[in-house]
Amino acid sequence: MSIKEVSFLILCLLLCQKATSSCECCSEEISSKATIVNRIINVLTKGNEAGVTYNELEKFVDKFGPRMTGTETLENSIDYMLDLLRRNGLNARTEEVEAPFWIRGEEYAEMTKPWPKKFGVLGIGLSVGTNGANISAPVLVVTSFEELEERRDEVQGKIVVYNFKFKSYGVSVKYRSQGASRASKYGALAVLVKSVTPFSLYTPHTGMLNYDQTVPKIPAACITVEDAELIHRLSKRDNVSVRLFMGAKTLDKPAISRNIIVDIKGWKYPEEVVIVSGHIDSWDVGQGAMDDGGGAFVSWRALAVIHNLGLKPKRTLRAILWTGEEQGLWGAQSYIKVSLTPRHKNEIDNISIAMESDIGTFRPLGLTFSGTNPKSQCIVKHTLELMKAINATELVLGVEGSDIVLFNEYKVPLASLNNDHRTYFYYHHTNADTMLVENSTNLDTCTALWAASSFVFADLNHKLWR
Ligand SMILES: *[C@@H]1O[C@H](CO)[C@@H](O)[C@H](O)[C@H]1NC(C)=O
Ligand SMILES: *[C@@H]1O[C@H](CO)[C@@H](O)[C@H](O)[C@H]1NC(C)=O
Ligand SMILES: *[C@@H]1O[C@H](CO)[C@@H](O)[C@H](O)[C@H]1NC(C)=O
Ligand SMILES: *[C@@H]1O[C@H](CO)[C@@H](O)[C@H](O)[C@H]1NC(C)=O
Ligand SMILES: *[C@@H]1O[C@H](CO)[C@@H](O)[C@H](O)[C@H]1NC(C)=O
């Protein structure tokens, strides 16, 4: 999950709500699919597909580890996936994507005054480095952009430390994304940002930033919640100084990667598409098992299970494993974004719904749905009623997602995997994003929800109304 979705998350915080009203559309047609839905659920929860999603994900993330855009590892993992998909009898192809080519390089940060202490640190993605030198400077701690404005006269020549109070990811991530340029405006040399998480066992979190092109680009790194709090406490009584080194740089040439596209062709409306997706790239820490190995794997596994059951929907069911997501949704931009003459622009009217899982594959609860057309909301509601066996019947209304939010420009209905992700941001963009976050039972039920709901949408007589 990257930075671009943040405004939508905020929107979701404000506007997402559980849908309660009753509705009339298409209930008989949808009920008639209960047998198929139950076959999908059964084969995943107690049949020969049970445990497969977890096992395949484990093999994948343990073989490759993290898969940052620009790395050979990511491209090798894409080749591995193509082979795996084809061995599963699926029709898979790739499309080339260009993304910013950011390299972390060596990095460290330490306190030098009032006493020496090394910090756990992760440079923020797309940050500039420190030009091969150490930046050593006194710190100014602020808890908000408002405080930064009030104390702007104190910023010159300092390293600004953001020790905000975590509210929610959507609200607090602005310090990571905008903190550098906001402080640079008043002459800061660098910024250290408290990791954006509600919980920490001394884990620094990375992520992406956006530079304001009108002020100098200064280095930015995340430190742990513990160290941000420590610096803040110390700074009330003492002068605190820190030293920062970052070898980070963005290369002049773009990184070249590939989206993976897997199709089960519709037998009746082959040009109309239902998309299920997740992203295959990750940051360069942990294993990218949760963000977004889980989402990518429930998506291709949904198609594999449907294929293995010999089911054929009326519409084309397409799994997309996006690349370049973390640096700014570059895979989805190349697929759809209006300003970039994207490859699939002429398809837009024929996309019935675009679904993405990029907020965890914990215990599934249902779907979050963006569509405002009452008939389409009804379709999703009735479809979720078929998910009682896995207790995943909850419809939440609102826009959520990462890559798929780009489809929102065209009013394509979006759905994301609504799951019990209360701990998602504990692990997000950290070295703790490993296979230990994943759970085989939950991956099976998430795959079941994903496969069954996308199959129903793809098999309806009518595509979703906008
Ligand atoms: C930066 O500081 C560290 C710690 O004092 C030192 O080991 C290192 O050589 C310095 N690096 C440069 C480029 O000056
Ligand atoms: C902090 O540094 C300033 C400027 O160098 C100095 O005036 C002040 O006495 C120092 N405060 C402490 C607590 O050492
Ligand atoms: C959209 O789908 C319809 C059939 O449902 C087809 O006639 C039309 O060519 C498709 N458009 C594109 C751009 O694929
Ligand atoms: C079903 O989900 C609801 C809401 O998430 C939860 O309160 C309940 O405990 C779950 N029931 C079972 C049997 O898992
Ligand atoms: C996995 O999740 C299931 C269902 O949510 C739970 O019952 C089980 O204890 C979990 N397994 C592990 C190993 O945590």
Automatic annotation (TrEMBL):
Keyword Lipid metabolism in annotation: no
This protein's UniProt keywords: Carboxypeptidase, Endoplasmic reticulum, Glycoprotein, Golgi apparatus, Hydrolase, Lysosome, Metal-binding, Metalloprotease, Protease, Receptor, Secreted, Signal, Zinc, Zymogen
Subcellular location per the Swiss-Prot or TrEMBL entry: Endoplasmic reticulum; Golgi apparatus; Lysosome; Secreted
Family: Belongs to the peptidase M28 family.
Signal peptide: 1-21
Oligomeric form and interacting partners: Homodimer. The monomeric form is inactive while the homodimer is active.
Record-annotated Peptidase M28 domain positions: 259-452
GO cellular component: endoplasmic reticulum; extracellular space; Golgi apparatus; lysosome
GO terms, biological process: peptide catabolic process; proteolysis
Location, primary (coarse class): endoplasmic reticulum
Protein name: Carboxypeptidase Q
InterPro entries found in the cross-reference section: CPQ, Peptidase_M28
Alphabetized PANTHER family for the sequence: CARBOXYPEPTIDASE Q (PTHR12053:SF3), PROTEASE FAMILY M28 PLASMA GLUTAMATE CARBOXYPEPTIDASE-RELATED (PTHR12053)
A GO term for molecular function: metallodipeptidase activity
